[in-house]
Design a protein that fits this description.
The protein has 232 residues and is an alpha/beta fold. It contains 7 helices and 13 strands. Helix 5 links the parallel strand 5 and strand 6.
Length: 232
């Protein structure tokens, strides 16, 4: 597998070293700053090259058309966006991943066809959510191409879902409850499964259904302000 990493800052450099340890991966690290590129070339040899990851001629020279994945992780969101778009539209690269430094830009990237994005701020906030003792809704994984996500729901006392059978819940049409965990017991639920306060639910839902699912499991005392608002 041929992987091109654009941006040799701390993120790109660390990622290149990690991937390089896998024998099946051919890695090329691209850095636009000549001084930084030359320093890394002394250390890494041909693993690192100097060039502009948004420039068509340069990308052609490094064989981007045969790349399986292009990963743009510079500190400039516009650079990352353009690099991924050029790889996709000019060279037919099927998989691109872009680092999003400003969380407000994440939806723009998706709108413009960059389905895989990585946001450090979103990752930190998700971890904060997971560590909050009374947090009712934790996003686990977004399946961007389908508009779905896997979420972890915690049924809070006096919530609308507590002591109610699944068949009687007003679930969004695109919500599928795949697992219910009660204490140390887990089960695949059916319509007769009655949820209890303290139960943990693993579900696949449409991203637009987040507010409705949060409302079902949250306690009346839990603030309604969503963590996603921090990102906007």
């Amino acid at each position: 597998m041929y992987i091109i990493i654009i941006g040799a800052g701390n993120v790109g450099y660390g990622l290149a070293l990690e991937l390089y340890s896998h024998a099946d991966y051919e890695i090329l690290l691209v850095e636009n700053d000549r001084g930084r590129a030359e320093m890394l070339r002394d250390e890494l040899g041909e693993l690192c090259v100097h060039g502009d990851g948004t420039e068509v001629t340069f990308l052609e020279s490094i064989g981007v058309s045969r790349a399986d994945v292009v990963i743009a992780v510079t500190g400039d969101d516009s650079h990352n966006l353009i690099a991924c778009q050029v790889a996709q539209h000019s060279f037919g690269v099927s998989r691109t991943i872009a680092r999003v430094n400003n969380p407000r830009n994440e939806r723009l990237f998706q709108t413009l066809g960059i389905e895989s994005t990585v946001s450090a701020a979103s990752a930190v906030l998700a971890q904060i959510e997971a560590d909050l003792p009374a947090q009712s809704f934790i996003p686990l994984l977004r399946l961007r191409a389908s508009g779905l996500e896997v979420v972890d729901l915690h049924v809070q006392p006096r919530s609308r879902a507590a002591d109610v059978a699944l068949r009687d819940l007003d679930l969004p049409d695109d919500a599928v409850i795949s697992l219910v965990v009660s204490g140390d017991q887990s089960r695949v639920p059916d319509g007769d499964t009655v949820l209890q306060a303290g139960d943990e639910i693993i579900a696949v839902i449409g991203q637009e259904s987040e507010p409705a699912m949060r409302e079902l499991v949250r306690s009346p005392d839990e603030p309604q302000r969503e963590i996603d608002e921090v990102l906007q």
